[in-house]
Amino acid sequence: MSDHYRSKDDETLPQLAIPSRRRALLRMAALGAGATSLLTGGGALLASQAARAEEPGKTFRIGYQKYGNFVVLKARGSLDKRLAAQGVTVQWLEFPAGPQLLEGLNAGAVDAGTVGETPPIFAQAAGVDFVYVGNEPPAPQGEAIIVPHDSPIHKVEDLRGKKVALNKGSNVHYLLVEALKKAGLSYADIQPVYLAPADARAAFVQGSVDAWVIWDPYLAAVERQANARVIVDGTGLVRNTQYYLATRKFATAQPQLVHALLEELDHVDQWGRDNVPDVAKLLSPLVGLDQPTLERALKRTAYGVQPITPETLAYQQQIADTFTDLKLIPKKLAVTDARWRVV
C-alpha cells in the first residue's frame, strides 16, 4: 500500500495491489462511506460488471480483511475442501477495511464477509441489503486511541482541537464518539481526519495528525514499531464486536453455505484460541507482520462464533442511534430489519 499522507478532503484510497475494476469499486466505497447511497450512476455499471454469472450456489464469494480468522480459514483450506465436495468453489476477496468490504457486498461482488460493529450501521443507512448471520465475542482491547510516545496528550480531554485520524464508518468511529462523550467532549471539539489505515499510519508517524484511532493488528504494529502510546482502549466504552454478514439474497437462497462458513470459522476459532503462537506463525507471511506483533494482537482477540441475539441487535441499535443523533446518518434505523431469519 502507498504510505504517503492525504489530506482530510482527499478520501481516495491508496492504490492497492488488486485488479483495477475492484480498485474502482473501493474508491467509490471510500467516497460513499457516509450515509448517502453507495451506488449511483457509474457505480451501478461497476456493480453489474462485478457481479458474477455463475449458477447460484456454485461459487461462494467471501470478503475478508488482511487480518483475522478469515485469513486463517483461507490458509487452512478447510471450508474450500468441504464445499468442493458439494461442487461449490470458494472465492476469497481481500478488502482494506469494513466499509469497503460492504461496498463490495452492495455491488454484488461479495456474498458474505466479516466487519466490525460500525460499518453495518453506515451500510444499512445507505440501503445495503444484508443480514447479520453471526458474531464473535467482544474484544474491547483490540482497538484504541493512540498518540506518539512523546506527545503532550495524555488523556482524551487533551484531544480538544486536535487532528484525529480514523477510517470513516469503521468500528473505531464509534470508539472515538464514546470516548469523547465520556470525557465531556463532543465530536465537534476535534478535527476528524478520515484516512484509510495505511495513509493514517503515515500521517501519524510523520506528525501530520495528533492522534489515531485504530484496531489490531495495525494497533499492535504501531505500538511495537513506532512506540505509540495508548491513551484509551475500548474497555468500558465499546464492545468491538466482529460481525459476519451476508447479502439477504444469498443467505435466503443458500443458508447451508452460510451455516458451513460459520461452522468452519468456529473450528478455526477453537484451534486458534489454544494455539496463539501457531496462528501468529501462520499469519506472519500472509499479513507481512512479525510473529511477536501478531501474538500481541491475537491475545486481545475474542474467539468463538456466536448466534445473533436480540441483545446484540439492541447494542447495534444503540450505535445506530448515536450516529443518527450526530447527523452522520440521515434518519433513524431499525437494526432488526437486518436480522437473519435463520432457516
TrEMBL record:
The organism's place on the tree of life at top rank: Bacteria
GO cellular component terms, A-Z: membrane; periplasmic space
The Solute-binding protein family 3/N-terminal domain, residue ranges: 59-275
GO MF annotations, alphabetized: ATPase-coupled transmembrane transporter activity
Subcellular location(s) of the protein: Periplasm
Keywords: Signal, Transport
Keyword ATP-binding among UniProt keywords: no
Function: Part of a binding-protein-dependent transport system for aliphatic sulfonates. Putative binding protein.
Family of this protein: Belongs to the bacterial solute-binding protein SsuA/TauA family.
NCBIfam families, alphabetized: PRK11553.1, SsuA_fam
Protein name: Putative aliphatic sulfonates-binding protein
Organism: Caballeronia udeis
